[in-house]
UniProtKB/TrEMBL annotation:
InterPro entries named among the record's database cross-references: Aminopeptidase_N-like_N, Aminopeptidase_N-like_N_sf, PepN_Ig-like_sf, Peptidase_M1, Peptidase_M1_dom, Peptidase_M1_pepN, Peptidase_M1_pepN_C, Peptidase_M1_pepN_C_sf
Domain Peptidase M1 alanyl aminopeptidase C-terminal: 560-886
Protein name: Aminopeptidase N
First and last residue of the signal peptide: none
Family: Belongs to the peptidase M1 family.
A Gene Ontology biological process term: proteolysis
Top-level taxonomy: Bacteria, Pseudomonadati, Pseudomonadota, Betaproteobacteria, Burkholderiales
Ranges of residues in domain Aminopeptidase N-like N-terminal: 41-190
Protein origin, superkingdom: Bacteria
Entry EC number(s): 3.4.11.2
Length: 886
């Protein structure tokens, strides 16, 4: 019953494997049409498990031969498994040889072995290795790999796999070979091979421990000049992990290879990371500051997996957050440490929280809600989610916060001790989230984490975003201030009741002049709890959940006056930003609910002006403060959602800021427009971001005034720009205000970059994600589907056009005539036949349909039902739409 199309896999059903695979010898004869794979394994029975048949996983393979200890044997093929019942008795090792073929050129799912731009690549996580050969495709089976690659030498001059190159040479018929041996045992999801016409940027380094290493970044021949930033990021990652966690590089050679056909961002295969080109290639002419920052963080992320994921891996896929949550936490810390100054760190933190709130909170409130450690799944690919990654990282962050102590106010030293113990205990093993939490706690006896561990672990088992309610009481007569905190969490699918979480709450108090009175960490463990402070001269302003110390929704009835004090004075930059968000949300919700004409009040406008004109605040921080909460985030604050109303209100508020602050935007633009020779550092990136924001507002303001000056200046900047960030921001400003200069600028942008795939992705995404004016976006999207540069099979391109519209443009997508939903439904079905993983991600665009007001709600339901009714739907999409309709 395990493998059938409808079988739900349960965490509670975990059993250790019945067999171990100690070593694997793989020999590939690479050919796009028919690749031959000879797989020789040494296996033995797991003495701790009852004797049983060997069941190897395999998918879309042609089986030619099976030998046990060199002899033919009987076998069965059932439900994508190769079953061997007559194996030698006893615990002695035996050799199993399996010979299969597969068809890489026909592999559009991009899982297993596939062809992209005439090169071979593999993707094995989570269950892609079974598309290469029959195997025990589960992460707790760790083997040594010895891999021989054979291919035509002219077509595939470079042959790569994990570990060390031990032998290479020529063969008859213009073919050649390379043999790779990985010195580390690994689960098969970390296997990789690459073959093709590639070139490498190389760097030799000597690490702090004195060891020499060769670093390589492989790309297609024309792309070598775009690899410097990735290489710098890799070197920075290596130095950071050695410095902060004492974790060295454990390989002589570390390779990164870029491919333009990739389902995800990148993959941490041991010693041979395979990346989406989007997270490798950058030049100032083609990549924005955001691209540079993303490359730094993804290169870091994959590198950090070498310890958190590879040296210590997951026992089963329910433990996915063991490696992903922890590694996201590590890459976030890395990016913050590289950003340097406290204010730049805070900007990173705010950006991370914004992702959590706009993507993970809705997931936690919708049909796909699942705990950080899920209990069941139909298709594991559907669980590479913001909950596993971003909420998982917040859970790790809370652990760090909860091991803080004297001389270690942030818990960094305590957490590093915990990591050291984790590796001491588990290096080379496949373990669970419990093992990780236990190690961090055990290394910090007496800490709140150690005391509260069983309760703390509810963060792993309970889905849903907790609500933290705060109510204050001020007794002027005694100078006593009290803050009552309480928590609750609404039911999620399969979890009607929630027990209280451990919620670390960093709390500051400010006096009426904005001076800090106190700051400390409070840990809420019960349903409710009251903090009391006495001897105060006046009623304080509370700064609750500083630094966003827990992934919760904070409800406190802040008055505008309190928020203005926090915005002007809070020493915690996160809450300073948060105060501005709350001011904006109060107003947006008021206009959305009342239907009143949008008019911004003077105190709000003045507060925004003060931020814009502030003499010392960072440009990046100003940019974040002036960015209104997203339509998606606003929708989450409402019980019933009219996406058009939200869109109209948010656009009107943006227009309000554009016109009321016109002179301030001009001033800000002048102050920030020149950043000198291009460098992607956070300070100059912040200045470029703010200059771009100013241009957008100035163009918006010109829309009402009809003044041609700013659109003209913007076009000029678009033409003259010395880097992609300035060029793209200027283009985006013209597109955002719907100016007639946008069309020629878009055409010239396309002409300039017609040979740069990643820039064309931006070109598609910008048009599909543009603000909707009277339903104009869908026709553009449909037209772009016919563009010669559009290709549904390339995930980056599909995402840039279809996802930018369906998932990132609520104002354009949710149409009263339901045409957006019909488009969505057709694309999900079309993509499902090509690449179910990508289709299932698109399918999630309507997750929150139950919140929609009519006519959207009924139309959305109908579109989902139409997808669900399609015969031969993949398991991936079926799981998403079935849960949506439940
Ligand atoms: N493990 C990869 C990462 O987080 C993500 C990934 C999952 C890539 C599945 C491909 C397939 O770094
Ligand atoms: Zn990862």
């Amino acid at each position: 019953m395990r493998e059938g199309q409808n079988a739900v896999i349960h965490r509670a059903d975990y059993r250790p494997p019945a067999f171990w695979i100690d070593s694997v010898e793989l020999c590939f004869d690479l050919d796009p049409v028919k690749t031959r794979v000879l797989n020789r394994m040494r296996l033995r029975r797991n003495p701790d498990q009852p004797a049983q048949a060997l069941r190897l996983d395999g998918e879309e393979l042609n089986l030619a031969r099976v030998l046990v200890n060199g002899q033919g044997t009987s076998f069965k093929l059932e439900d994508s498994q190769l079953i061997l019942e007559n194996l030698p008795e006893g615990n002695a090792p035996f050799e199993l040889e399996v010979f299969t073929t597969c068809a890489p050129a026909k592999n559009t799912k991009l899982m297993g072995l596939y062809v992209s731009n005439d090169s071979f690549f593999t993707q094995c996580e989570a269950e892609g290795f079974r598309r290469i050969t029959y195997f025990l495709d589960r992460p707790d089976v760790m083997a040594s790999y010895n891999v021989t690659l054979r291919a035509d030498k002219a077509a595939y001059p470079v042959l790569l796999s994990n570990g060390n190159l031990v032998e290479q040479g020529d063969l008859d018929g213009g073919r050649h070979f390379a043999r790779w041996v990985d010195p580390h045992r690994k689960p098969c999801y970390l296997f990789a091979l690459v073959a093709g016409k590639l070139v490498a940027r190389e760097q030799r380094i000597t690490t702090a421990s004195g060891a020499d290493h060769l670093l390589q970044v492989y790309v297609r021949p024309g792309d070598l000049d775009k690899t410097e930033h990735a290489m710098n990021s890799l070197m920075a990652s290596i130095a950071w992990d050695e410095g902060r966690f004492k974790l060295p590089l454990d390989l002589e050679r570390f390779m990164i290879v870029a491919t333009s056909d990739f389902n995800m961002g990148a993959m941490e295969n041991k010693g041979l990371n395979i990346f989406n080109t989007k997270y490798v290639l950058a030049s100032q002419a083609t990549a924005t500051d955001t691209d540079y920052a993303n490359i730094e963080s993804v290169v870091g992320h994959e590198y950090f997996h070498n310890w958190t994921g590879n040296r210590v891996t997951c026992r089963d896929w329910f433990q996915l957050s063991l490696k992903e949550g922890l590694t996201v936490f590590r890459d976030q810390e890395f990016s913050q440490d590289l950003a340097g100054e406290a204010s730049a760190r805070a900007v990173r933190r705010i950006e991370d929280v914004r992702v959590l709130r706009t993507a993970q909170f809705p997931e936690d409130a919708g049909p796909m809600a699942h705990p950080v450690r899920p209990d069941q799944y139909l298709e594991i690919n559907n669980f590479y989610t913001v909950t596993i990654y971003e909420k998982g990282a917040e859970v790790v962050r809370m652990m760090q916060t909860l091991v803080a102590g004297e001389g270690d106010p942030l818990g960094r030293a305590g957490f590093a001790r915990g990591m050291a113990l984790y590796f001491e205990r588990h290096d080379g093993q496949a373990v669970t989230c419990d093992d990780f939490a236990q190690a961090i706690a055990d290394a910090n006896p007496g800490s709140p984490l150690a005391r509260l561990l069983p309760q703390f672990k509810r963060w792993y088992s309970q889905a849903g975003t907790p609500r933290l309610k705060a109510r204050s009481h001020w007794d002027a007569a005694t100078g006593t201030y009290s803050l009552a905190l309480s928590q609750s969490c609404t039911p999620t699918p399969g979890q009607p009741h929630k027990d209280p979480f451990v919620i670390p709450v960093r709390l500051g108090l400010l006096d009426a002049e904005g001076r800090q009175i106190s700051d400390g960490l409070h840990v809420l463990t019960e349903d409710s709890d009251t903090l009391t402070m006495s001897g105060l001269a006046g009623e304080p302003v509370p700064s609750i959940l500083r630094g966003f110390t827990a992934p919760v929704i904070l409800e406190y009835d802040y008055t505008d006056a309190q928020l203005l004090i926090l915005l002007a004075h809070d020493t915690d930059p996160f809450n300073r930003w948060e105060a501005a968000q709350r001011l904006a949300i109060h107003r947006a919700l008021h206009f959305i609910r009342s239907g009143e004409h949008v008019e911004l009040d003077a105190p709000f406008v003045e507060a925004m002006r003060a931020v814009l004109r502030h003499p010392t605040l960072d440009s990046a921080f100003k940019d974040l403060v002036l960015t209104l909460p997203s339509e998606t985030y606003l929708a989450e604050q409402l019980d019933e959602v009219d996406p058009q109303r939200i869109h109209a209100v948010r656009e009107a508020m943006r227009m309000g800021l554009a016109t009321a602050l016109r002179h301030d935007w001009e001033w800000v633009y002048e102050q920030n427009k020149d950043t000198g020779a291009y460098r992607p550092d956070s300070r100059s990136a912040g200045r470029r971001a703010l200059a771009g924001m100013a241009l957008t507002h100035l163009c918006l303001a010109a829309r009402t005034s009809g003044d041609p000056v700013w659109p003209g200046k913007t076009l000029q900047r678009f033409k003259d720009a010395g880097n992609m960030t300035d060029r793209f921001n200027a283009l985006a400003a013209l597109v955002a205000c719907g100016h007639e200069l946008a069309a020629p600028a878009l055409a010239s942008f396309h002409a300039l970059f017609k040979n740069e795939a990643l820039v064309l992705d931006k070109w598609f995404a910008l048009q599909a994600g543009a603000p909707d004016h009277g339903g104009n976006i869908l026709p553009v999207v449909k037209q772009l589907m016919q563009h010669p540069d559009f290709n549904l099979r390339n995930p980056n391109r599909a995402r840039s056009l279809i996802f930018s519209y369906c998932s990132a443009n609520p104002g354009g997508f949710h149409r009263r005539d339901a045409a957006g939903y019909v488009f969505w439904c057709e694309r999900v079905m079309e993509l499902d036949a090509i690449n179910p993983q990508v289709a299932a991600r698109l399918a999630r665009a309507l997750d929150r349909w139950k919140k929609l007001a009519d006519p959207y709600r009924g139309a959305a339901r109908e579109a989902i039902a139409r997808v669900a009714a399609k015969p031969d739907l993949s398991r991936d999409v079926r799981e998403v739409v079935t849960r949506a309709l439940a």
